[in-house]
UniProtKB/TrEMBL annotation:
<dbReference type="InterPro" id="IPR012340">
    <property type="entry name" value="NA-bd_OB-fold"/>
</dbReference>
<dbReference type="InterPro" id="IPR003029">
    <property type="entry name" value="S1_domain"/>
</dbReference>
<dbReference type="Pfam" id="PF00575">
    <property type="entry name" value="S1"/>
</dbReference>
<dbReference type="GO" id="GO:0003729">
    <property type="term" value="F:mRNA binding"/>
</dbReference>
<dbReference type="InterPro" id="IPR050437">
    <property type="entry name" value="Ribos_protein_bS1-like"/>
</dbReference>
<protein>
    <submittedName>
        <fullName>General stress protein 13</fullName>
    </submittedName>
</protein>
<dbReference type="GO" id="GO:0005737">
    <property type="term" value="C:cytoplasm"/>
</dbReference>
<dbReference type="GO" id="GO:0003735">
    <property type="term" value="F:structural constituent of ribosome"/>
</dbReference>
<dbReference type="GO" id="GO:0006412">
    <property type="term" value="P:translation"/>
</dbReference>
<feature type="domain" description="S1 motif">
    <location>
        <begin position="6"/>
        <end position="75"/>
    </location>
</feature>
Amino acid sequence: MVYKIGQRVSGIVTGIQSYGAFVSIDEDTQGLIHISELKHGYIKDISEVVSKGDEVDVMIMDIDEYSSKISLSLRSLEKAKYHPFSNRKNISRYGRKTGIGFQTIDKIMPVWIERALREIEVKGK
C-alpha cells in the first residue's frame, strides 16, 4: 500500500525501546513513534503509554524517501489539555496577575506616547 504524510492508519505495537515504539502498519511496513510523539507532556516510561501488542491509531508524520522509514505520531491525534504557550501557572510575566494582558497597538500607543512625553518633561526640568 502507498502511504502519505498526514494519513491516519491503524497498527500494532511490535516493540518498545527507550527512544520510542515500533508499530507494524501492515505485513511489510513498520514505523516508529518517537517518545516525543507518544503524548503531550513528559513521559518517564514508554510502557506507561503503550505496550507490546497494543492496537493503536497513528498519523504518518514523515516518510523518508531514501530509506523508506516512516515516522508516526499518537500525540497529533489527541487534543492537548492546554495550549503549549498558555499561562497555565498564572506567571506574572505574561500579564495574568497584573491584569494588563495583550492590547492592540492602536489602543496602547497613545498611552505609551503620553508616558514618554511625561518622562521627557520630568527629565527636562
